[in-house]
Amino acid sequence: MPTDTHTKILATIGPSSATKEQLSALLDAGADAFRVNFSHGTHEEHKKRIKIIRSLEKEKGRLISILADLQGPKLRVGDFRDEKVLLKEGQKFVLDMNPKLGDETRVCLPHKEIFEAVKPGDTLLVNDGYIALRVDKCSKQILETTVVVGGFISSHKGVNLPNTKLNISAITKKDKEDLKFALKTGVDWIGLSFVQKADDVRELKKLIDGKARVIAKLEKPSAIEDLENIVRETDAVMVARGDLGVECPIQTVPVLQKRIVKLCRKYAKPVIIATQMLESMIGNPTPTRAEVSDVATAVYDGADTVMLSAETAAGKYPVNAVNMMHCIIKQVENDPLFFELMNSSRQAPCEASEADAITFAASELAGVLKNVRAIVSYSSSGFTTFLTARERPALPILALSPDIKVARQMVLVWGVRPCVNKESFKAFDSVEKCAAKHVKATGLAKPGDHIIITAGFPLNVKGRTNMLHTVCVK
User: Among the options 8, 35, 265, 417, which is catalytic?
Assistant: First the structure.
């Protein structure tokens, strides 16, 4: 059966969660969907894990969504002669295109795009921002820098450029190979790293050609500058707080998180909050109080999904982490303040379409009628269901779609319980009967309860949600 919360849980697969028994336990603990991280592992490993998920989907009788997360461009320094070197504050340090092994004075930076983009005064952050270098002089092959924040540096540490836009595609050759493989295995969502502008999303959509939906990962300041255009263009958004907290001043991340969630809700785009949510549970069976508050804040903000990364991929207590996140979500959603906040943060529909009006009215009706148990949304593309979820109604949303791919994608959407429905309708009473059958089968309603139905008329016509109806379940 589906989980009993509106906010969903996305768990990352890794060595700690790769077997059928482990994945089954994560689902039982409250996971709704799984993330396959293409920064690690082989295609054969990913294929095996995806196959297990689909088998569990059948065994447990519930749809499971799969996100294939592309690695994106990884900017890293080259190799050092010794295991690591110490950079001291105030010293000079050179980054160049010479593949020679590095030392305490220089190291290779094999990314010509960086040399073409940076200018004197720019800052380079190395090793997740623990080392900061100020650019003094630059040419096409050499950057002379001063160490502003020192520390140990070793081979292949990542480089971030918080104030620099790079002329580089978000999709690498490796990503294209991984994308081709992921689409062949039938994943539901594709995560795009290193998004700088809306054109990056458009580029990926052309490659996908409708075979999956796109999640734009927001982790760069340039993405924030083009935020509204990116949100409009993408299918969903991930607030990737790890790199975002390195490239932006760390104190701005909570503010950006709330801004992004609000904008995604305005445009009816699912939003995922990710990175370090229960980080301490990688090695401990319980989280810190601050981490519990962090997850709760994301839920109170109205995020569609919260994500676990290393906690389930490589941690010692993956099932505990999912169970803890599920418990936090339930606690928050049982708080009377939760739906007060959801109602107070509702925004007027951004378009004056029939579908916007119908879904807005459905949520209003759900708040007036006292014996309504669910909203049933008929949607072939999922778009109407996205609009319904945007309103954050205090009722579960039963989404019926003839397309199993669409139904799986809606697993990540707030409040949605998706089902596949292959029936075609000749009269409206068959629409009512079908909805009643599904709400009873899923346990959302029983005879005598009422449900709200949104659908399109004429029946079986795509993209035409123009009808709102209440039905007594028989």
Answer: 35
35 is known as an active-site residue: yes
The one catalytic residue among 76, 174, 262, 346: 76
3-class SS letters over the chain = CCCCCCCEEEEECCHHHCCHHHHHHHHHHCCCEEEEECCCCCHHHHHHHHHHHHHHHHHHCCCCEEEEECCCCCCECCCECCCEEEECCCCEEEEECCCCCECCCEEECCCHHHHHHCCCCCEEEECCCCEEEEEEEECCCEEEEEEEECEEEECCCEEECCCCCCCCCCCCHHHHHHHHHHHHHCCCEEEECCCCCHHHHHHHHHHHCCCCEEEEEECCHHHHHCHHHHHHHCCEEEEEHHHHHHHCCHHHHHHHHHHHHHHHHHCCCCEEEECCCCHHHHCCCCCCHHHHHHHHHHHHHCCCEEEECHHHHCCCCHHHHHHHHHHHHHHHHCCHHHHHHHHHCCCCCCCCCHHHHHHHHHHHHHHHCCCEEEEEEECCCCHHHHHHHHCCCCCCEEEEECCHHHHHHHHHCCCEEEEECCCCCCCHHHHHHHHHHHHHHCCCCCCCCEEEEEECCCCCCCCCCCEEEEEECC
How far is residue 322's CA from residue 53's CA, in Å, rounded to a whole number? 17
In sequence order, which residues have a C-beta less than 8 Å from that of residue 227 and are 6 or more positions away?
218, 259, 260, 263
Q: Which of 157, 217, 220, 269 is labelled catalytic?
A: 217
pLDDT tens digits for range 153-191: 999 999 999 878 888 999 999 999 999 999 999 999 999
Query: Is 289 in the active site?
Result: no
Residue-wise pLDDT tens digits, 220-252: 999 999 999 999 999 999 999 988 988 888 999
123-141 mean pLDDT: 93
CA-CA-CA-CA dihedral for 254, 259, 262, 263, to nearest 10 = -140
**Which domains are seen in the chain, by residue range?**
8-72+170-336 (3.20.20.60), 84-160 (2.40.33.10), 346-472 (3.40.1380.20)
Mark whether 146 is an active-site residue: no
- Which of 7, 12, 145, 275 is an active site residue? 275
217 is catalytic: yes
